[in-house]
What does this fold into?
Amino acid sequence: MPRAAPAGTPSHVAGGRGPGVQPRPSASRVRAPGAGRHLVSKGALRRPQHCRMENYKKTKIVEKPCPLPFTDLPADIIEMKVKDGSKIRNLMGYAMSKMEQDSVRQILFTGSGKAVSKTITCVEIMKRRLKELHQITKVLFRQIEEIWEPIVPEAGLDALTVKRNIPAICVLLSKDALDPQEPGYQAPGSFDAFWTETLKAESQGQMKRKQGGGRGAASTGKHPRSTGGVPGGP
It folds into this structure.
């Protein structure tokens, strides 16, 4: 028969464990990794309060309608909506066939996001093929909505809608004269004048920031790199 433990003996020693050995927690007290996060219950499902984007995938992009930055445009004006995946050959084939008609006097090129550079390329190609085209360029931002859905629907995560503002460009080309006082106007024959002036202004601004906003060697206390010679020597 097992002997009874002396009075005052700790329970973990009485149970056959040596001194200093803590009792094993019950199964109900063991928590899985990540169980310490705050959970928000929604219906019968529970989800983390702070969701990570790595648990989502982008399923759809919705472009919000944006009014054109031009007034008094013809109702039947041809608008070439350039997308990131558009083929320049297909775009220019259709645009040139329209602009070669005498009844068509104006055409509009629009693009946003990654399609901005492709839009500019289409405009420059048309200006080189059709001389005497007047141009007005407008740069703006437009809003898009990205729909993100959870990778594992059973995880109880909600779909997310992310709103973003992306750069966009609208270029109006006209056979007839346009207002030269309008911002962004380019006269016929000035193929890259607008982009050259824009890049020139940006480069000048960067140079001014480096010269005026930066710190010189004298102001920061920096010393010229030593060449290994004795100070004052040759």
User: Anything to note?
Assistant: The chain is about 25% helix and 25% strand. Residues 116 and 169 are 6 Å apart (CA to CA). Strands lie at 39-42, 45-48, 56-63, 78-82, 106-112, 134-150, 160-174, 185-186. The helical segments are 11-14, 88-99, 116-129, 193-213, 217-220.
